[in-house]
Amino acid sequence: MFYCREEELSTMNRRYEKGRFECIVIYGRRRVGKTALINEFCKEKPTIYFSALNASSQENLEALSKAIYISKNPNGSSFPTYRSYEDALDEITAMSADTRMVFVIDEYPYLAKAEKSFSSRLQHIIDHKWQNGQLYLILCGSSMSFMEYQVLGYESPLYGRRTAQFKIQSLTYREITAFHPDLSATDQALLYGVTGGIPHYINKLDVEKDLDEALLENLFDASSYLFEEPENLLKQELREPAIYNSVIAAIAGGASRSNEISTKIGLESGVCAKYLKVLLDLGILKKETPITEKPGKKTIYAIDDNFFRFWYRFVPRNMSVISAGRMRQVYDRAVKQYFPDYMGLIFEKMCQEYLLRYATDLPVLLNNVGQWWGTDAKTRKEIQIDIVGTPVEGNEYLIGSCKYRNEKIGIEELELIRRYAEVFRKDGTFHYYIFSKGGFTPALRDASDRGEVTLLTLEDLYK
Q1: pLDDT per position as a tens digit, 407-424
Q2: Does domain 343-462 have CATH number 3.40.1350.10?
Q3: Strand 366-376 versus strand 381-391 pairing type
Q4: Fewest Cβ atoms closer than 10 Å to its Cβ: which of 128, 214, 229, 432?
Q5: What is the 3-state secondary structure of the chain?
Q6: What radius of gyration, in Å, describes the C-alpha atoms of the chain?
Q7: Across the chain, what does the average pLDDT equal?
Q8: What average pLDDT does the segment 174-198 reach?
Q9: 41-56 average pLDDT score
Q10: Rounded distance, CA 263 to CA 277, Å?
Q11: In 10 A of CB 45, how many CB atoms?
């Protein structure tokens, strides 16, 4: 089934119907659904689909030649190789002269790195042969930094040739409900917490009725696809996967600042910074700074990919049990009992998404939502505010707390975030929000009835 990319698909089809030359750039991290979107778009359209190889220029020319011949003769068994890329591109020019043709180059960075002059050749043929034709060119890539700088960037030979671009993001916590609409809100949240809204991971987890059973069969089993996914992805993308594994493990273990990470894995800070940058480019890590502040001394590193975060939290510590095939016997004690703690940060992200994308009656037009942390001058203690919503203009702010616990949250939580708000800013108007999985005490609900705070449960996020 094809889910949740209807807007991108509609835009691509509208452009196809116009019959003009198009150069569509599609990029995003691996597993996010780029190829599924392209395949859905290409259905019942004349298409040359070339998936570039992480191989030599000659091997890529052979693969491109095969893709061209298959598009003309799907049942053919012989695929001669063109003498050059120019010959292959000239053949595509001829094929699209009288037919609206889609030409897809998937994993474009592989081809551009293998054949250094290809981007320049592509720019030349776009300018001199394709610009006034009807070819529909799609360039797709998973290396976001390459696509942003070497395809979309000002110094790229292809700069200015694109007619549209799509940065494919992971699905939101609400969008993934399309995959398994019958799951409870708690299971939907956990599914998001495990997969991070990556369609490939949702499909591989293969939830039927019971999410616990799906995790046991398709992640906490040494023979399952998802069990080896982080290691395989690092091997596929990186030359030194062991070092990158150590970096991620250090962050999963609590190291958040660059000096802490470099010390924990035994690398010089400058060398460690290079590994961190690569993981940032892959979308596995993210840098966080207190909202309203510029990057600086308070900047920390965190795992941005939910699946990596879940895997590094629960798999390494239980590796011997998993390898022995005994995870089913200890799952409740070794994994499930820690879900509320693990889901704390996931719930914060869901609440932020809710405020930015789905809430319709906010008292403030928000520019951004994030965390804030700093030192309370009175107590000299570090404090953290789960939710700070900043306005597009003006001096009104949303201040919020997120609690992924089963017990009801009481009036003391409102008093706490009021104190924290004063540390955040001495001036301004504050609107208080408390999100709770387990609900609220009567006293806090009374405060809500008086208009002092807005209360939202996990279920409310899905309405």
Answers
A1: 999 999 999 999 999 999
A2: yes
A3: antiparallel
A4: 128
A5: CCCCCHHHHHHHHHHHHHCCCEEEEEECCCCCCHHHHHHHHHCCCCEEEEECCCCCHHHHHHHHHHHHHHHHCCCCCCCCCCCCHHHHHHHHHHHCCCCCCEEEEECHHHHHHHCCCHHHHHHHHHHHHHCCCCCEEEEEECCHHHHHHHHCCCCCCCCCCCCEEEECCCCCCCHHHHCCCCCCHHHHHHHHHHHCCCHHHHHHHCCCCCHHHHHHHHCCCCCCCHHHHHHHHHHHHCCCHHHHHHHHHHHHCCCCCHHHHHHHHCCCHHHHHHHHHHHHHCCCEEEECCCCCCCCCCCEEEECCHHHHHHHHHCHHHHHHHHCCCHHHHHHHHCHHHHHHHHHHHHHHHHHHHHHHHCCCCCCCEEEEEEEEEEECCCCEEEEEEEEEEECCCCEEEEEEEECCCCCECHHHHHHHHHHHHHHCCCCEEEEEEEECCCECHHHHHHHHCCCCEEEECHHHHC
A6: 25
A7: 95
A8: 96
A9: 96
A10: 17
A11: 12
* Class of the CATH-defined domain 6-167: alpha beta
pTM: 0.92
Q: Which residue has the tokens 């104190």?
A: 419
- Edge-to-edge strands, sheet with 454-457: 366-376, 381-391, 396-403, 429-436, 454-457
Cα–Cα distance measured from residue 367 to residue 381, given in angstroms and rounded to the nearest whole number: 29
Mean pLDDT over 253-257 rounds to 94
Tell me what pLDDT residue 411 has.
Answer: 98
pLDDT, tens only, 230-245: 999 999 888 899 999 9
Two structure tokens written together for 405: 């616990």
| CATH 3.30.1640.10 is the classification of domain 175-341 | no
So where are the chain's domains? 6-167, 175-341, 343-462
Instruction: Please report the pLDDT score of residue 182 as a whole number.
Output: 94
